[in-house]
């Protein structure tokens, strides 16, 4: 992330995007251990492993936002540089950064992902003018594909990874 990090917290109508705080540890473990969340990302992580290995406080790093509703973490958004060494990340000529998001299942269907991702993309395009950003998801994840469309991503290609068809979309930036 070349822009100054961390930015001040980003406020939307209902949410705050901010760095992780010690109080987020349990919710992050719940998120990563959730079978529903893990459906399209290789499965849930074992709770016991997360309890043992998750730093307290949770690790802060450039590009990682916690999404909070009324002070409580409900999800995460990442804006990460794409890694040419990972086989699931292809076509670096299209975008050098990738948007990722995970939300607790009890928050799904309420527009939080759209609201939070829109705010993160606005911040990103202001911090990185003209820089396109990628989003990849399994084609079977129809909710994620709908969100990508709402956010203005257009399909660049489909490819096979992790024994599933993947969709790669590109957002042009500002």
Q: What does this protein structure show overall?
A:
The model has no long low-confidence stretch (mean pLDDT 91). An eight-stranded mixed sheet has the order 1-2-3-4-5-6-8-7, sandwiched between helices. The chain has 174 residues and is an alpha+beta fold. Strand 7 and strand 8 form a beta hairpin. It is built from five helices and eight strands; from the N terminus they run E-E-H-H-H-E-E-E-H-E-H-E-E. This is GNAT family N-acetyltransferase. Residues 15-169 form the N-acetyltransferase domain.
What's the arrangement of secondary structure elements?
Blueprint: E1 10-11, E2 15-18, H1 25-33, H2 35-38, H3 47-53, E3 64-69, E4 72-81, E5 97-103, H4 112-127, E6 133-138, H5 142-151, E7 154-161, E8 164-171
Parallel strand pairs: 5-6
Antiparallel strand pairs: 1-2, 2-3, 3-4, 4-5, 6-8, 7-8
């Amino acid at each position: 992330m070349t822009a100054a990090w961390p930015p001040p917290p980003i406020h939307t109508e209902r949410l705050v995007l901010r760095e992780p705080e010690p109080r987020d540890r349990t919710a992050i473990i719940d998120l990563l251990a959730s079978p529903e969340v893990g459906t399209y990302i290789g499965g849930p992580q074992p709770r016991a492993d997360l309890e043992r290995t998750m730093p307290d406080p949770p690790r802060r790093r450039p590009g990682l936002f916690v999404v909070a509703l009324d002070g409580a973490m409900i999800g995460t958004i990442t804006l990460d540089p794409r890694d040419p060494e990972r086989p699931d990340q292809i076509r670096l000529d299209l975008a050098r950064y990738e948007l990722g998001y995970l939300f607790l299942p009890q928050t799904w269907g309420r527009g939080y992902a759209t609201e939070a991702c829109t705010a993160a993309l606005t911040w990103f395009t202001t911090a990185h003018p003209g820089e396109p950003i990628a989003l990849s998801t399994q084609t079977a994840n129809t909710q994620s594909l709908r969100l990508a469309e709402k956010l203005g991503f257009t399909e660049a290609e489909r490819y096979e990874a992790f024994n599933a068809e993947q969709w790669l979309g590109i957002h042009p930036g500002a």
